[in-house]
Structures are given as C-alpha cells and as structure tokens.
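Hello support,

Our group uses your service weekly, and this is the first time we've seen a run hang past the timeout. The protein is ABC transporter ATP-binding protein. I'm not sure whether the cause is the sequence or the server load. Input pasted verbatim:
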Amino acid sequence: MTPLPADPSRPLLEVRGLRTVFHTLAGAYPAVDGVDLSIARGEVVGLVGESGSGKSVTGFSLMRLVDPPGEIVAGEVLFEGRDLLSLPESEMRAIRGDRIAMIFQDPLMTLNPVLTIGEQMIEAVTEHHGVGERAARARAVEALGQVGIASAAERLRQYPHEFSGGMRQRVAIATAMLNEPDLIIADEPTTALDVTIQGQILHEMQTLCEASGTALLWITHDLGVVAELADRICVMYSGRIVETGSADAVLDAPRHPYTAGLLGSVPSVNAPGTRLHQIDGAAPPLSARPTGCPFRTRCGNVLPVCAEIDPPLVGPVPGRGWRCHNPMPERDAA
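Update from on-call engineer: The timeout came from a worker crash unrelated to the input. Re-ran successfully.
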C-alpha cells in the first residue's frame, strides 16, 4: 500500500466507534464497546485500566489480530485516513511490523522458538525494506544495544530459550523498534523488567518518539509509568473509555470516580502511613454488565439515574472528557 502524504492537521491514527465482541453459546458480549481514540504523530497516549477492562483487546483490534471467537463488528480504524479494517489482509501484513508495530505482554507471542534471534530480527528488516543481510544484521545489533543487551552480535546467534524472560521481552521491544515505525502499540511491555531496565526502555521510547515522530500507544495498569511517559491518558473501564485528557489534567484533577479510585490506590501519590484507597468489588464480567453506568455497582458517587442511563462522554473542552452523571468536584479531584 502506498502511504498518503502526511497531513499535520490530521491525527496519525483515529479510531471511531470500535466494537469487538466475543461469541459464546449464550450470545455475543462486547470486550471493546464503542471506543473513540486518536493519536497524533510523535504523541504518547497511555491507555489505563484494570485487568479485564478491554485495553489489550483494543490493541489487538487496532492490529486486526483478534482471533475467533472474537470478532470486530463495528467501527473504523483510520491510519493516515485509510480504514485498516477494510484493507485486504495482504496490505495489512505489509503495514504490521513496518509502519505499525506491536509489543506484546508475553514475548513468546513475538519470538519463534525454533529460529535464532538473529534470523527473526533480520527477516523483520529485509521483509519490509529489501536491504541486504549485512545491513539488516547491523540494524538488529543496534536495536539490541538500545534496549541494554550486551554482546549483541553474539546474542543474535542464540535461541529464545537461551534468554531469561526479561531478556526475551527486551528482544521483543527491540524487534518492534527495528523499522522505526510510525506507530508502536505497547501492551504492558515493561512488566517483566527490573526498574533500572524499565527506565532505560522508557528513555529509548521517548527518544524514538521525539527524534522520528513515532507515535506510541502505551497500554498499562501502571499509573506511575504513564505519569512519566504519556502526553495524554485514556482511562478504560468495561470496554469503554470513561475519562480522557492531558496527562496533567487526568492525574492532577480526575473527574471520573473510577480514575480517582485508581489514583487513590497508588502508594507514590499518597502520604506515608496513609491507608490506601480500595475500589469496592470487581469489574463485572462481559456477560453480566449492569444496566446504565457499568461502574455504578462500585461507585461512591452513584445516583438513581446511574442505573437507568449510560452516561455519554462530556467535557469542558475538546480532548478532555468523562462519562459520569456525578463527577468528582474539581476542587476535590486532585
């Protein structure tokens, strides 16, 4: 596919009404339910929420990697104005790994156990750029060095089972960065790494975004990471984005009670000795989502209308919004 000329006024990625369901014997249940999202060139967007909120399925849906019984049933994923959901699979394959890369939470989803690290990384370069093996190998060595792997040339000859879990994740991150893609979707990529290496990876990601204009969708439950990394934050609950805004606005003055609850449970933002806040209950399963607002059964700000009407996304300015009938007061939200 020939890319369209870049338009600075248009988001690199614009998601409209994305809906992904999982089919069961009892019916089809939405894991992603009407997600709207945009990412500009060079922007870092944090997608935050508890396990089961739909974050990872959103990432897989953007890449068209949802397998049965999952199915993308509605929406648009516009990449430079073209809808990825309507492209032939051959064109989508040309985009994956080149213009859009994904870092999976489990590196074994990226690495083939019967091929050496070098074979896999070199193929990732030659497949999309048609360069010689020597140039591709040099790029692979450089990428491994960027993620803190010593003796990179020698490590290319090894197999995934010869690496620790954390080292395999670093290889997966390096592979995603190989072709300097326009967009990287990172699904909890630093969970298995120690704090020192995590900081190094975050620094490399920020450098890549600033130097090349690469956009980054960082999927995580770690608010500390997005506070350091993200320009903008989208908070997800029960398959929907319930609050969005600049990182400073969301972290300093959350308006949705769920966002405030997440922040209240983080030790680093609470005074020493202060009892951490705990959100009551658990996220509802897909098959038992309550009527009205999905968060109402766990919310301390619940009103009678919450049981009847699912709140729309509202906000004072474009790019800042929340889904709540009774939002946190601004003066108490920080």
